Sequence to fold (387 residues):
Amino acid sequence: MRANYGYTDGSGEWYITIDTNKCDGCRACEEVCPEGCFAIEVDDYDDEVAMVTEDQRKKIKYSCGPCKPVGKEHVEPCHEACPHGAIEHSW
Amino acid sequence: MAGEDKPEYWRWPESRWTNPDLDWKAGDIITAGVDVGSVSSQAAIMVDGQLFAYSNMRTGSNSPDSAVNAMDWALKDTGMTLDDINYVVGTGYGRVNVPFSNRAITEIACHARGGNFMYGPTVRTILDMGGQDCKAIRCDGRGKVEEFLMNDKCAAGTGRGMEVFADLLSVPIQDVGEMSLDIDEEPNPVSSTCVVFAKTEATGLLREGWPKEKVLAAYCSAMAHRVVTLLERLGVEEDFAITGGIAKNRGVVKRLEDELGITTLEPRYDTQIAGAVGAALFAEALVKKQRKQAGG
Fold:
């Protein structure tokens, strides 16, 4: 399942995407995100996968947004940490 | 004295239904789904995968009470009690606050599964237009979610926003959709779907002499346009269906169809019960799984 969690700010509408089919629940994203956006939880189909936690969903503008690259350099720690490339952003 | 007799234009009709052809006592697996949303709550009861009864009512200030009320109303006059139900799944915004539920499942998964039941297995894209947010979901032929999109937006351009507009213009909420289509020329949409900004803008338009129909058209249009961007990002694969309360508003649905160049499936059930129906179906599958494990 591709899960897209979005937010809107002055520069547009942005999404963080987790492809749960690629996720093996290794917790690398959970450990590396400076704002604690991710958690490994059992989803609706009983798979243990990464998701943006319920209480983060309404505020990812403030937690996930700060990692949005300024200029060409990309520094998203979650992208680098995920060994399976399961995490993407729409920016 | 002032305002005492003012009708509540925003108040949509609550409803309940029982399947007259189904003898639940002859059933094997009885399950229920309770969807406690931000604006409305539903309970759906299924007997061996067939819809037996449902209720659809307003969510109060207390989620557990709303869940209990919805369930009680669905059970009313059926002779069935909560003890007869094998498994209950809670869903929606208040899913963890359903006191008698056995498990909580997200409304995304439940709307996909409920949509599959209500609109048939050909449905691939479901737009849930709820009381306080919208979600675009793509699912497979069995109602399993393949992809979904949600955002952090508030009541902007959703059921609650429509309630505010019905009240502002003194138009009963059920009439808003049709009335918004009764115009000579489509106006520009209001520039923001934010209920607060849109209300200010609408007040200005009324003062300029716009008829109510045109103001409603401008708001319905803005609401449709807002979800189009959500759907375009997901990519609409047909068949396409809308669940939730706004699915009953022709003014939004028609504008959405026109903008996307697609048609929506005709609803055969109350569109607000999709989440509860999906939850009841999840409950049924979980009972079967439990029995299989116990037997094996």
